[in-house]
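As a warm-up, study this chain.
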Amino acid sequence: MAHIKIRSHKALKRQRRKFHQRKRISGTAERPRLSVYRSNSHIYAQAIDDVNGVTLAASSDLDAGVKGGLDGKDKSEVAKLVGESIGKKLVEKKVTSVVFDRNGFIYHGRVKAVAEGAREAGLEF
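Now compare it with the structure written out below.
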């Protein structure tokens, strides 16, 4: 494992899961890696071409397009909107298939909601 200074045991465990996953997951231009990061208050998603080292599309709950429809929604509903947003951006760029990278987080709750939103927008995993 890379030598990274981690403050908490919980964060260290997530980093270990992340490194273990990333050994096997890689994105290409035709099938980018859809990486999800969640903090306590926000959620972010980006599609990455690892071969060329380029981010093809990104979305978060802080984006202007998503931020307008957040009133009265809980975090999972917001995460689903973020998934739909990045899905639409990728479909516009003629990308229909992605590799899902949960980034060491458990596939549950907000992470799962992003995946479901992206599927509804037309992406295949």
